[in-house]
Automatic annotation (TrEMBL):
GO terms for cellular component: cytoplasm. This is GTP cyclohydrolase 1 type 2 homolog. Pfam families: DUF34_NIF3. PANTHER family: GTP CYCLOHYDROLASE 1 TYPE 2 HOMOLOG (PTHR13799:SF14), NGG1 INTERACTING FACTOR 3 (PTHR13799). The keyword Metal-binding applies. Belongs to the GTP cyclohydrolase I type 2/NIF3 family. Keywords: Metal-binding. It comes from Hungatella hathewayi.
Length: 262
């Protein structure tokens, strides 16, 4: 199978249409005319991940997030961008971003993977908007219990919780990654699980909601750590769909080098 054929097949996974003229899901480097045998999958195509992928002998790397620190991977005149371009070119890797198509699956592939690996029991309900899915827990939990479960099963270093921590609830707005405005999600959900949140807006709203007894909570996992299980799940799906190819997930890790505490 050629890389182009694999990419074309990946683009049939979505249930919601993706605008091909405006998607970020494009080939970022290399040739699609090569035969593919070993496929690497990662959240971020960091320089360290690229080196590991090359050492493994991959023909093709699929990432979820941008290579060059810009959503559409527009190239900026910066030293780090130029050096990373050189490293990627020298690697000979073909790199493709699988972002919009992943979130356009039903259920959202990233959300489904996070729920699977977090071992959350319940039901995936309707999509509230692109990248946001409602999940109903089978058994109600407090924010503290939910955070402990996520830390344990997703192997997280930390979760930042804003709002009420001791009131049980079962309705979760799953906003993995960087979801944007969360205002409309407060009314219908007990918890919001996100990667990145705005502290001055979303976290403050959760704090005031708790102060007046509304018992809302936001759990912020970090961007990479809130979506990586979705890409691990992609590896599982690929192994089932393409048994003649070899797949391996590469961990890009948290962007935080070290956390300092008082």
């Amino acid at each position: 199978m050629k890389i182009s054929s694999l990419i074309n097949d990946l683009k049939t996974w979505n249930d919601i249409p993706v605008d091909e003229d405006n998607t970020c899901d494009t080939v970022k480097s290399g040739s699609v005319d090569k035969e593919v045998h070993k496929v690497a999958i990662a959240m971020f195509g960091t320089i360290e991940v690229i080196k590991q992928v090359v050492d493994w002998g991959a023909d093709f790397l699929i990432v979820h997030e941008p290579l060059f620190y810009d959503h559409m991977d527009d190239i900026h005149d910066l030293a780090i961008v130029k050096e990373k371009q050189r490293i990627i070119y020298d690697s000979g890797l073909t790199i493709f971003r699988f972002h919009d198509y992943a979130h356009a699956m039903n259920p959202d592939m990233i959300c489904a993977g996070e729920i699977k690996y977090a071992c959350l029991e319940g039901v995936i309900k309707e999509r509230k908007k692109f990248g946001v899915t409602t999940f109903i827990l089978k058994e109600p939990l407090t924010a503290e219990e939910l955070a402990e479960k996520l830390i344990r099963n997703l192997n997280l270093d930390q979760i930042r919780v804003s709002g009420s921590i001791n009131k049980k609830g079962n309705s979760i707005a799953c906003c993995f990654g960087s979801p944007g405005d969360l205002f409309e999600l407060y009314e219908d959900h007990d918890f919001i699980i996100a990667g990145e949140v705005s502290e001055w807006r979303d976290a403050e709203m959760a704090r005031d909601a708790a102060a007046i007894g509304l018992h809302k909570a936001i759990l912020a996992l970090g961007h990479e750590t809130s979506e990586r299980a979705g890409m691990m799940y992609m590896k599982d799906l690929c192994e089932d769909k393409y048994p003649g190819l070899e797949f391996k997930y590469f961990e890009s890790g948290s962007v935080i080098t070290k956390m300092y505490h008082r």
